[in-house]
Amino acid sequence: MYIILILVLIVLVLAIRIVNQYERGIILTLGKYTSTKNPGLNFIIPVVQRMIRVDIRTKAVDVPDQEVITKDNIPVSVNAVVYYKITDSEKAILEVENFYYAISQLAQTTMRNAVGERSLDELLEKRNEIAEKIKIELDKKTDKWGIDVEALELKDVIIPEDLKRTISKAAEAEREKRAVIIKAEGDKIAADNLSEAARKLGQTPGAMHLRTLQAINDLSSDQSNTTIWMIPTEILEAIKGFGDTFKK
Length: 248
Description:
Elements (H helix, E strand, L loop, with lengths): L1 H14 E4 L3 E7 L2 E6 L2 E4 L5 E7 L3 E11 L5 E12 L2 H6 L4 H18 L3 H6 L1 H16 L4 E12 L2 H43 L3 H14 L12 H15 L1
Helix pairs in contact: 3-5
């Protein structure tokens, strides 16, 4: 009697399976898929049935550094992280041997192909666009595994040190070029304004004298200013001639 009771207890212990809220239980009966167990207390037939737990939470796969040659033949090293979630537990177990490893390998090849189609400038300027393209392509390929790729982010784009120095020099030269252009445009605008002001002053009688008086007034407002007056030689010669005439 006791032996039978012990055997029953052992069978019950072996038959009880607890599935957590974030899991699903795939039941294989004699090696064949028969059902999927939801969270809670579940029972299986020992020896005959086996349960495989599948975590359906969002998980992250780190894609290690990949050496890639860009479209313009520049070697770069790119790494990324993939966020995915299992939407069909049955497919994730039955359609692929190890979905975690499969996603990692698929992400590496897809990323290399996508980066190889772009130039270095495009890779640096359109990182989010390229990441979205890789994500869409990866999501299409993993649908048959019951996996939804939620996001993919390119973490680092590493370029050779000598190329970094070249890019830095090119950026500095571009900044200097822009500064020269902006200064030249400012000088041109200032010259145009001065030319227009001179034209208007020349066309208005007495305007130049008024501008001169205004300048003198501005200079005399500060006693520390020293003013040097430049008198044309014609005026000096006229004064000298006037003096000679007066003596006669």
